[in-house]
Amino acid sequence: MSQAQKDYAKLHAISKDIKTLRGIASLLSWDQETVMPPEAAGVRAEHLKVISGVIHKHSTSLKFSSALAKLIDIDTGKPVVNGLKHPQKAALKVWRREYKRDTALPKEFVESFAKLTSESIHAWNAAKKDNAFTRFSPYLEKIIHLCRKKADYIGYNTHPYDALLEEFEPGMSTKELKKIFNQVKKGTLPLLEKINKANPVDDTFLYGNFPKQKQLAISEILLDRMGYKMSRGRLDESSHPFSSSCHPHDSRITTRLDTKSFMSNIRTILHEGGHSLYEMGLPLEEYGSPLGEAASFGVHESQSRWWETLIGLSKPFWSYTLPLLKEKFPKQLDSVSLKRFYKGINKVEPSLIRVEADELTYNLHIILRFEIEIALIEGTLSVRDIPDVWNQKMEELLGICPDSNTTGCLQDIHWSLGVFGYFPTYSLGNLYAAQLFEAFKEDHPHFEHEVAQGNISFIKDWLASRVHRHGQRYTGPELIKKATGKPFSPKPFLAHLDDKYSAIYAL
Ligand code: CO
Fold first, then answer.
1. How many CA atoms lie within 13 A of 337 on its CB side?
2. 157-176 per-position pLDDT tens digit
3. Distance between Cα 40 and ligand 1 center (Å)
4. What CA–CA distance (Å, rounded) separates 276 from 227?
């Protein structure tokens, strides 16, 4: 083994220990959200505080930085050794970027940010409950001030938002996002206008009484069909569904069961199952290195939205699944044809709440938040004007206006946590997924026939070979280009919307 390979292996070993600590922290959080006794909340906060301190200490330690510096110049990013393979060089870039981010912020800054956001979340909760924006706004002003400071510490070339975005979607810029989102807006708004004028779709049969146990039985069948291994995962209930992974052999999901409607559980299972399959598909031998980590938040979301929307809202999928559902709920569904069912689950209806939005209008909710975030970080919008701007943009993009801030600008938790730059990855996920799906269809021209038979696990294998196995070797846009042979573009997504809704609404 060459010296460079030995040094690389040493860095990987140190990094693996840090990853394992992160895994322990994520198990603590999983437990907190699922089965923890309520009175353990206090001590759990202690657990998490101590472990995150330990993680920070390790990832900014001299031991780590000197191992890294043997392979790459931390200041300039230039390689300092020969004899490394391409993926290893890509991994070093990620290690360096993350190390620089971890050490860019002074300790006092990190502490005051953590203190502010833990107070803000309570203020946001109360403000949302009482529809009282001014109870949250002083906190939000401070958060934005600190986010701008954070961008300065981290550094950026053209836009302070770039520094915030990089945490979630490296390789994407504010300028590029503005261009992409304008294209999405231009493609979506005329389509929405036509749908609003078309004959409405009936979805009343989706609501009724659907006992939890029967819904859970369907969930297990679907996860099994997708290729999700229960021997490496779990399914539990939680108030906010999520997926949590600490290793490809331990990747868990949760769902929320609503007895009045079965679709929210099914979409959640496919969504979180998609996130989890990504984690299960990461290369085992790279555990602890960037090559064993998901590429980005946007790419992660592409995997969940792929299963939730491109598969889970498609006709072939339901031609297999509807009979299963009818077995469980014959009274409600026996008289519903596949055609009527498919139309019903794809009903488009502008709504106030992002997490309840349909596939077409969802991105408009993201674009609205993105435009507001940019203006806040640029300083061209002041916090007190958020409610007015929010309502005006809702009117412009969705044609509806909230009658309270609770269902308007206070609906999402993200800003109270100090998370700016995250929302765009929700839309990028849809766009990446659609472009991947085009390439998938070329490779599997008869996939619809297979899916209609209930054979869907080959889809997971395709995603594993095109996306999962690369870890963080590529950024989101690079990975999409590598996997599809074409530069990243929103066009496949817009074409998908056009085809789908023209058929459903006979446009
Ligand atoms: Co997701």
1. 3
2. 999 999 999 999 999 999 99
3. 28
4. 11
Whole-number average pLDDT of the chain: 96
What is the H or E stretch that residue 247 is in? Answer: strand 243-247
CA 343 to chain centre: 26
Ligand 1 centroid, distance to 79 Cα (angstroms): 35
The angle that helices 212-226 and 315-328 make with each other, rounded to 10 degrees, is: 140
Among candidate residues 315, 328, 426, 449, the one with its CA nearest the CA of residue 369: 426
Catalytic residue, from 98, 166, 169, 272: name it.
272
Structural contact between residues 107 and 153, judged by C-beta atoms closer than 8 angstroms:
no
**Rounded CA Rg of the chain:** 23
- Residue 252 region by backbone torsions, left for phi larger than 0, else alpha for psi between -120 and 50, else beta: beta
Contacts of 334 (CB under 8 A, 6+ apart): 326
Ligand 1 centroid to Cα of residue 447, in Å, is 24
What is the CA(226)–ligand 1 centre distance, in A? Answer: 17
* pLDDT given at position 205: 96
Mean pLDDT by 10 residues, the chain (507 residues): 96 98 96 94 90 93 98 96 97 97 92 90 95 97 98 96 97 98 98 97 96 96 96 94 97 96 96 98 98 98 98 97 96 96 98 96 98 97 98 98 97 96 98 98 96 93 97 98 98 98 97
Q: How many CB atoms lie within 10 A of CB 448?
A: 15
Look at residue 118 in the predicted model and tell me its pLDDT.
Answer: 86
For 475: left if phi > 0, alpha if psi spans -120 to 50, otherwise beta; the answer is beta
CA separation for the pair 46, 440 (Å, rounded): 46
Tokens of 378: 């640029």
Please give the distance, rounded to the nearest whole angstrom, from the Cα atom of residue 426 to the centre of ligand 1.
Answer: 7
CB 321 within 8 A of CB 284: no
Instruction: Please report the pLDDT score of residue 334 as a whole number.
Output: 95
User: pLDDT tens-digit profile of 228-242?
Assistant: 999 999 999 998 999
272 is catalytic: yes
Nearest to 338 by CA among 352, 351, 326, 327: 326
The Cα–Cα gap between 212 and 210 comes to 6
Query: Tell me, what's the pLDDT at 324?
Result: 95
- Residue 398 DSSP label: H
CA of 243 to the centre of ligand 1 (A): 8
What is the token pair recorded at 160?
Answer: 């302070």
C-alpha distances in angstroms, 158 versus 75, 163, 228, 339, 348? Answer: 20, 9, 42, 50, 38
pTM, two decimals, is 0.97
